[in-house]
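Entry under discussion copied across for reference:
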Amino acid sequence: MTKPAAKVFITRKEADRYWADVIANYLTRASESKLEVVVATDARKGTRWRKWIKKNLREASVLLFLQTHDTTNWDWCVYEAGLFTDLAGDRTKDIVCLLGKDQRPLGPLLDLVPVKPETQDVMEFLVQLLCRPEQLGLDGALRPDLEKNEEALELYAVGIQQAMLREQRHETSYQHDGFVVKVPGAVSRNAIHEESLVRPLPGGSMALFGMRAQWSGSWKVLTDKPQWNDSGLRDELSEAIAVASRDGGRPEPIRAIYEGPLGEIYRSIVSDVVENPGGETEVTVLFVRDNGWNLNRIEAPFDALLTSLGLATRIRYEVVERYLPDQDVDVSGAHKAGRLKALVSRRKLGAPKEFASKLFAHYLEIQKGATAIGPNSEDGLIRAFKGSEVDEVNALWEDWYKTEERFGDLVNGDFSESDLDEVERCLREWRINSKKYMAIAVDRYTQEVRRLMLDEGSHSSPKSASAAPGGRLDDVGPGSTRAD
């Protein structure tokens, strides 16, 4: 797993916890995970918070001061900004103010040029941060190509701008898109040639795939990015295109998903195959938006319920079923021990620790994606359940996080090949846990939908509650607590 090249720290008020996480998610995606973005709530329970904050402020190259609204108490944020400057020593490190509507920098920060909640302002901020090396103190820029890709740059900028304004998440206009792959006459059994030519659909755009709108080029260049390889989509789709272009074969459905620039999920379909006279085959691939993961406009507390369902579904199929495609397995795994170890070796998925670390990082990234897309707090989630369901769900989530902690301890410690058996046990536990939770959650949501349909006296939607993702560390200031 590639280590991020630089770190940015976001300081914010408690009321802006959700929006800070949204901004962090956009910056991570815009940098293609080359930038690590840290928010104070990233710390886990039990962490020595003062030591944790000092460590991350010392390592950060830039501090983002998120100021979206008026409040009288900015002690904690100003404290973090001052500590950031003190820890920099002789090195000059930037503090960037991200302002909300009608905001101006606080007194101590008045001499800093702020970023206003305007698309052009945010685009210029992204160019300085990602397309130039100076602000992060690097030898080379993280994303020099992004400056020329105006569609993608504006997409990220609008998302961040709307978070600064505390508005709903920017909705991408993509509902479906795709491309055409020109495959040479000679095709192997399970993959297309890396130099197969890719071009956009007629009237379409390649911006969804991180390219310029009318980009065309090789399959290798298009798919040589984490979102294609981490999910296994590159291999699955390459095989499907190969099968479709060889004797009119019918490929298996593609299980891997494609994650768009803002975290939206797409399912890919081989939709059309045309044989050219010269022996080449042109295969059309469509990417259709999966709106089941777009949950942030649903009423509370069922927004949190559906976010959790999307989260559990993705983890089950992208993390568990991808490597342990069993349907019913005893949690002990005694009769199938060593399956994961054999799979890692057979597929040449890397050294044991590298594989486990990458898998755990993907798990955490799915969680972070859910946080940026919809409310994901445990407190908000529990409000969606009734009676005995509350205790049962609480127990399931407690077991879930115990497994997560065990997995995290494994990848952060001295990891050997034999530890893959323990990772396998973690995956089996998550499979059983997610099945139980999804059965309860789907049933609960179905009941609520029926209730709303039968409630003829209700003609208006309840006001959505303000929701923010739960953190693992209570926010504490230099003297007491972070307060608005």
Summary: The first strand starts at residue 6 and ends at 11. Residues 176-292 form one domain.
